[in-house]
Amino acid sequence: MFITSLARAGTTLVLELLSQHPDLASHTYRDMPFVLAPIFWDRFFGRFRREGEARERAHGDGVQIGFDSPESFEEVFWKAHWPDHYRHAQRIPLWKPRHLHTEATAFFRKHMQKIVSLRRPENSAVARYVSKNNANIARIDLLKEMLPDAHILVVLRHPLEHAASLLRQHRNFAMQQAADSFVTRYMADIGHFEFGELHRPFGFPGLSERATPDAHDYWLAYWIAAFQHVEERYEHVQILPYEALCSDPGPVLQQLCLTLDLDPGELSGATDLIRPLTRKTDPGQFSPALVAEAEAIYATLSTRSGYPHAHADQEQTQTDRST
After folding, report:
1. What HEC string does the chain produce?
2. Which residue has better confidence, 320 or 211?
3. Hey, which of 87, 240, 244, 273 has its CA 20 to 30 A from 311?
4. What are phi and psi of 70, to 5 degrees?
């Protein structure tokens, strides 16, 4: 089960929600640094296991993390088996079915089984692997080839809020990397190229090479290119509207569980993790043409998602524009 989108869509929240289900298992921060040898590392590290206090992650967005917080470090796997994809200086190419790697697929299946047995030993016969990896938005075609029965869950956030958040984090990590070279090395090691000095976009068709990532329009154009790519692969993914999840989490979580063949009763208390939304992005910061194009894609995907209240944010957007 693969949760994906562009960064800042709410994928971490969705992983935190789903990882509470006893039938799902994910990576946690305890798997670092030997991500590809989780059982060996757990046996070794278990001798020195200690509890750590939760602290705010480097994004500065209020999300608290600790050793046992769910997180996905599987990009290490993709870097190890498809190194050529990361050697392009300007952008990271999309993964296509022709990139299918039989040995890598077998390794990945075994790796997922290890995570399940490690995290859900009492339930390993039926539990499933769940990951949050934003880079998987560039691998929809290959993932369906590798794992035809996989669920690919794309989180859809309103494009203006999403683009503004991407810009803020790009500036945030650029400052952190300028101040501390360790941040740059760490992000490179785990394949985190979304922001800052290391930023390299995925090679979605139609993405301009002239725009600078220090501008609002760059990130909105990137959103448009990414979700046009998703829209063209709609039959291979499941869309989860972030705004609908935050505005009415109970019914949305219930429908999500039914879609994923999970017992929704196991997540009855998970809604406590969800915070109410605040709309704060000024549309005037973006090109009107890009805003119109992004809104049209957002409306189409929201409608196709079929979730309750998926259209409420569109109605609010139209009210905000007229006001």
Report:
1. CEEECCCCCCHHHHHHHHCCCCCEECCEHHHCCCCCCHHHHHHHHHHHCCCCCCEECCCCCCCEECCCCECCCCHHHHHHHCHHHHCCCCCECCCCHHHCCHHHHHHHHHHHHHHHHHHCHHHCCCCEECEECHHHHHCHHHHHHHCCCCCEEEEECCHHHHHHHHHHHHHHHHHHHHHCHHHHHHHHHCCCCCCHHHCCCECCCCCCCCCCCCCHHHHHHHHHHHHHHHHCCHHHCEEEEHHHHHHCHHHHHHHHHHHCCCCHHHHCCHHHHCCCCCCCCCHHHCCHHHHHHHHHHHHHHHHHHCCCCCCHHHHHHHHHHHC
2. 211
3. 273
4. -70, 140
Quickly state the pLDDT bin for 313 (edges 50, 70, 90).
low
- Is 319 buried (19+), middle (13-18) or exposed (0-12) by CB count in 10 A? exposed
pTM assigned to the model: 0.86
Question: For residue 297, what are its two tokens?
Answer: 């894609």
Is 258 a residue whose pLDDT tops 70?
A: yes
Q: In angstroms, rounded to a whole number, what is the distance separating the alpha carbons of residues 95 and 203?
A: 10
Number of C-alpha atoms within 13 angstroms, CB side, residue 157?
A: 25
Q: Which among 254, 29, 17, 189 is positioned nearest to 119, based on CA atoms?
A: 29
Mean pLDDT of the chain: 85
Of residues 55 and 88, which shows the higher confidence score? 88
Contact present, 132 and 12 (Cβ < 8 Å) = yes
pLDDT at 103: 93
Q: What separation in angstroms does the CA of 157 have from each of 154, 160, 206?
A: 10, 9, 21
Q: What is the pLDDT of residues 53-83, one digit of tens each?
A: 555 445 444 445 555 666 777 888 999 999 9
